[in-house]
Amino acid sequence: MRVLVDTGSAPWLLAAAAAATSLVLVARRQPKTPPRYGDAYITLMSNEAKHLLSVPPIQTATLYERVDVPALKARTAAIVAQNPWLLGRLAYGPANTLELQYETSPSNVSEAFVEVHCPLPADAPEEQVAAWLAHAATVGNGHACLSSTRGQVFQVVAAHLTNGSMAIVVALCHVIGDGSTYYRLYKMLDVHEAPAALTPVRAFEDTTASFGALTPHTAPATRTLFVLRRALVNAISYSYRKLLFGSLPQIAEYRVDAKALAAIKAAHVPRKDAPYLSTNDIVASAFFEMTSTALGLMAINLRDRLRLPPSAVGNYVACFVYTRGDYLNPADVRASYHDKTAPQVKMSSEPFPTSLFSAGHFSVMTNWCSFYHHLVLDENVLPIAHMPVIVRGVLPFDATGLLYHRSPSDVRLVTRLATTPLSTPSFLQRV
């Protein structure tokens, strides 16, 4: 029998065989992207993928004398039925973009609600109870959610306290949304509100240009040796204290004196760029000063500046930056962001600290007051108190400040400090 060889096609066959072999070898070396979870996904924004994976979840606890637990569980189920993405999972997609993958008809609705019992004694200090509540939910930071196939991104926890009262903890992975998104979901638990579907699709994927145009000073101020040194010092200090002494960063809480603040506002002389002073302007100025801040960051909701509706889901927040010359006068703080359609205005000629040897601290200030909602779960049972629940993990900052409403008439500042403040203004009363 003769073997017929087509000499004309031999080079093409050899080349095709070589190419196929190369493709097989490359394919073997390339890790396969696992199939997406569920039947829908959202591509998250670049700022969420790059900057928020290590940030602790947003959590609050609201205290009640009693709670109708079955009713709360049913309301939670109604919220996630309208917003199934809250039961999704964080994962990297085929293009290596961070995605929230989910089922449009979820089978794991029960995972959004948990009922627990606090083991602490009835007379345990509020600080200890808050520390326990910080870990009552199974929601972690972005890295924790990515590393687990069951990583929760949203959860409501009904915690029975030993003194007979109850704490309702609501937790949201920060990669999924900011304070505005968090409180829109939180508000849906109210008996007077109806669960509604929010649109989780982001307005854009790459936030570099849009956010950068509104925060022209932030990148030059934060991409410096000064910030790198402070971040390293705080990380090393955190690990050293935790491992050797079992101590965590100091949490301090201050009540804002409403009368004293009203007097400061009344004494303000209006000017074109600062027609009035807000509580945030006054407290932010004081917080940066009392923590010896050389570079201060203040979180700013960009939705108005980006022409987005308040209901836009995601992290549409960026930080404006302040030197001592920018924040000492509360009126200058107001003027720096008063125009809600414009970028930050730098109010002094003082340069940002950039050197490895620049003195002072690196701090951040956040304000939740405008998001506050007096959450009524039952017509006959009103909330006793509302508070942030802070996970004391490692952060790059020397100090963090959070301004919030504990009740409609009680405004407080909770701080996490690496060092003791040198002085405290009279309108902040230590609790």
TrEMBL record:
Gene3D superfamilies: Chloramphenicol acetyltransferase-like domain. InterPro entries: CAT-like_dom_sf. It comes from the Eukaryota. This is Condensation domain-containing protein. The lineage of its organism: Eukaryota, Sar, Stramenopiles, Oomycota, Saprolegniomycetes.
